Structures are given as structure tokens and as C-alpha cells.
Amino acid sequence: MITENIFFIMNIIGLLAFAVVGALKGIKKGLDLLGIIVLGIMTALGGGITRDLLVNTIPYALRSPNDMGVALIGVWCAIVIFKVFNEDVSNKYIIQVPDAVGLSAFTTTGAMIAYNFDVSFFGIIILATLTGVGGGIISDILLQKTPSALTEDFYASCSIIGAIAFYLAILSNLSLETSAVICSIVVLMIRIVAMLCKWSLPKFYSEQK
């Protein structure tokens, strides 16, 4: 029960943070109110919706009013934040830390759902990572830009590592709950260290003449 409550709180924090980040992207791009709302909602819920469609179930976000309501609150918070500070604060720790909590919670949820649908090792990694970063990728595509999860920072890699840790814990005959806790801790700790140490993956440029 305590673990479920913790994951519930982490999920709420993540939904708020993701919605704020997405809405701020829309504001920065000069979208109107509808565009800002759509971007905020898709950033918060897009990954989970895509995951559920891949496992052939009606998306949870469409069955429960809670997630949509929290995402809309996040959009409202983004508008207030922008009005107060008049700047994009999505790269500040006040947003990045809750975002890391959300990445951890969403990745873990994706891994657990993938396990319950009896997919392969790679299926667990794909669904866990998609749940964690899919919303951000969708919002970037809507803005006609290369997804930041593929070009900047050490972000999606945290989900991949966490999903691998989850799978190894399952192989070690640990319970699903314990494996989920391990996944969540791994993702959160790696993401926070990556932010503090400014980790990034190597890039390979091809110069065009």
C-alpha cells in the first residue's frame, strides 16, 4: 500500500512537470491557447497513450479523468509561471527535478505493463522508454523539430537503463513490486546525477561541403 501511494504521488508530480514543460514549449513557440493546451497534454499523456495502443488496450488516460485533469492543471501552472517569470524555466532545477521524478514513475509503469503483457526483453525496454519519453517526442514532432530526447542531454538513456534493471530484477526472481522499486530508483538517481554532472552521449558529426 505504501509503495502504491508513493508511485501515485510520483505519477502526479510527473504529469504536472511534463505538462508544464510541454506547455512552455508551446508558449515559447508562440502557439495560441489551444496549441499550448494540446502540447501540454500530449507531453504529459502521449507516451502512455502510445504504449497502451501498442498493447491493444484503451488508453488509461482516456478512461480516467484524473490524468487529464492533472495535465490541464500543469498547463495552467505553466501559463502562470511564464506570466510571473516571463521566461522559459523548463531548464531550471525547479522543473527538471520533478521531471526526473515523472520520468522515473512513467518508465516504471511502462515496464510493469509490458511485463504483465508478457512481451520480450526488448519489448519491456521499448514500452518502458516510450512511456517515459514518448510524450516529449510527440510534442517536439508537433513543433516540427528533432526530438530533444534524441539529441540533447542524458535522458532517454535513463529509461533504457532502468528498464534493463527491472528485467534483471525479474530474472533474479524478485517480486514485481520490488523490481518496480529498483527500476524507479535507478532511473531517478541516474537522471539526477546526469543533470548535476551534465552528462551527454557522444555525437558524430558529418561535415557537408
Automatic annotation (TrEMBL):
Subcellular location: Cell membrane
InterPro entries tied to this protein: Gly_transporter (IPR005115)
Topological type in the membrane: Multi-pass membrane protein
GO cellular component, one term: plasma membrane
Main location: membrane
Domain of life, per lineage: Archaea
Signal peptide: none
UniProt keywords, alphabetically: Cell membrane, Membrane, Transmembrane, Transmembrane helix
Boundaries of every Glycine transporter domain copy: 9-81, 97-168
Record flagged with keyword Protease: no
TM annotation in the entry: 6-24, 31-49, 69-85, 97-115, 121-142, 154-172, 178-201
Name the UniProt record assigns to this protein: Putative membrane protein YeiH
Organism in which the protein naturally occurs: Methanococcus maripaludis
